[in-house]
Amino acid sequence: MGLTGIQIFQLLPKTNCKECGVPTCLAFAMNLAAGKAKLSDCPHVSEEAKQKLASESAPPIRTVEIGTGDGAFKIGGETVLFRHEKTFFNPTGLAMLVNDDEPAESADAKLERFKEASYLRVGLTLHPDAVAVRCASGDAQKFAACVAKVKSATDRGIILVSESPDVMEAGVKACAGRRPLIYAATPDNADKMIALAKEHKLPLAARAPDLEALASLSEKIAGAGIEDLVIDPGSRKIKQALHDQIHIREAAIQKKFKPFGFPTIALPFEMTDDPIKETVYASLLMAKYAGLLVLSDIQGHSIFNLLLERLNIFTDPQRPMKTEQKIYEINNPGPKSPILVTSNFSLTYFIVSGEIENSRVPAYLAVLDTEGLSVLTAWAAGKFVGDLLGSFINKSGIKDKLEKRSVIIPGAAAVIQGDLEEELGSDWEVLVGPREAAYIPAYLKQNFS
Question: What is the pTM of this model?
Fold first, then answer.
């Protein structure tokens, strides 16, 4: 945000009405400056102040949405160069290329791999976001048929790739109602591509041979009223591509250079014929700072790594990933099954639950809300302690389902055993389990099989 908290405060009504959820207008202004509040939370702000604050609060890189419904995804909207300064907001979009002249069996196989590329990781479903349909044939009808095929095969985003306005128009009509990204407007076809994007209210990608030409093209497109713009510096050597991506991000964020204030698109498949190198290039460009990447194909051994990298980069460093506090049933537990306990830090939960599943021993897993902290960190902060854990188990109603009441606490938190025994009562047995999750299967098999 361009304005400081004090500058924002000067534009607020200063009523301290508390209707925004905080005690004072100054506190609200500070939250707004930090990105922790929305201007709409203030019911009394004037229209003049709204206009000024909306302009100043807009991120230096515009957010662009591609697609519709559940398949829509956003790129851009970033405000910092480095994640630790605040966070990154919209994950890099990952797209797979389909050419309109490739054999039907090849295209079908690609689309099947695209649909199957879905992975559960720390409670999140990871998958690629879009299919890019390229007119390699030069035939508008063939292109439209391929677009229609992709449209029926997936509800995720679609990118239409052609430099011919006539071909692009055929693709846009075949993709009606799906809000595809048009790629690409160039210095030679810009007027017709702008008209097409405006007519159908679609996001437009611009490509130029260098940064100077890209800035001019971006200004022209934005001046024509196209706000949802994605930019491509046209570099197809990895060193130059990285240089251009970094330069664009720095110019947009540090210098507020508006022609570069848009998310970028990169095409690693045009930089190499080697699929391994393509994955490596995509990995580099995701880190610095591509908003959208188009890959030649989706293969599990490569896309999974890119999805994990994306997860790591775009996870908010200020907010731990956490799961819901509750009693989870694993391997169909019964009245004699034990209860294991852990914190609600997502990674801890999925490691522990995975090891219980591997043991094939029926068990319950009690997950205590520790605000996303791991077990030892939560214990040190007073959030994973005997009285809180005992109170949670007692209130959960699990007691009524059990004949044998055994609770297994992590070995690293053995110090809470006495407090938990006191909180639960004499009809509960509190056991100290392994210090490491890897030893849970052996422990459960030895004691509860």
Answer: 0.79
